[in-house]
Amino acid sequence: SEEAEAESGKPWSVARSIGTLVAASVGAAFMSEILVGAAEGTGKELGMSSIFIGIVFIAIVGGAAESLSAITMAAKNKVDLTMGIAMGSSIQIALFVAPLLVIIGLFVGNGGFYLTFNRAETATVLMAVLLMAVISGDGHSNWYKGIQLITLYVLIALLFYFIPGMQ
User: Fold this and answer.
1) Which of 114, 139, 147, 160 has its CA 20 to 30 A from that of 101?
2) How far apart are CA 114 and CA 102, in angstroms?
3) What is the DSSP string of 71-114?
4) What is the distance between the alpha carbons of residues 105 and 152, in angstroms, rounded to a whole number?
C-alpha cells in the first residue's frame, strides 16, 4: 500500500480539493474581471455598442482558451471532446452561472440583477440553439458544418453591430 501511494502521489483530502477549487475559482474570477474591464474599455474606444461588446467582443476574448482547446482536440479528430468543450461552457453559463448571479444580485448591490432580453437577443439565442442541435445531432462533423456555425456567428455579430437602438 505504501508503494502504491509513493507511485501515485499522496491522495488529496476532500477539504484540500475543495479549497484548491475555490482558490482557483476566485483567481479566475479576478483575472476575468481585469480582462472584461480591458476589453470593455477597448470596445468603447473603438465605438462598439455595449451589447456588441458583451455578446461578441468579450465572448471571443473570454473564450479564447476554450476555443484553442476545442481546435486542438478537433485537429486530433476527437469530435466528442471538441463538442463537449464547445457546448459545455454555454450550457454552464445558461443553467448555472446566470441564475446564480440573479440570486446573488438579490443580496448584493442595489435593487438586484435582472436578466432581460429584447427580441433580437431572444431570436439570436433561438437560432443558435436550433442550428447547434441540427449540426451536432447526428454525431458527425465536417468542414461545411463548421462554415455554417462561423457564418451564423458572423451574422449575429453584424446584427448586434449595426442594429439601431442598441447603443
Assistant:
1) 160
2) 6
3) HHHHHTT-HHHHHHHHHHHHHHIIIIIHHHHHHHHHHSSSS---
4) 32
The predicted pLDDT at position 164 comes to 60
pTM of the model: 0.65
Measured CA to CA, the distance from residue 12 to residue 33 in angstroms comes to: 30
End-to-end CA distance of the chain: 65
Rounded Cα distance, 155 and 105, in Å:
32
The DSSP annotation for 113-143 comes to: ------HHHHHHHHHHHHHHHHHHTTS---H
Q: Which of 132, 51, 60, 144 is nearest to 91 (CA)?
A: 132
Question: What is the per-residue pLDDT across 116-139, written as a single tens digit (0 to 9) for each?
Answer: 888 888 888 898 888 888 887 887
Task: Identify the DSSP state of 63.
Answer: T
Query: Using CA atoms, how far apart are residues 99 and 103, in angstroms rounded to an integer?
Result: 6
Q: Which of 26, 93, 27, 95 is nearest to 54 (CA)?
A: 93
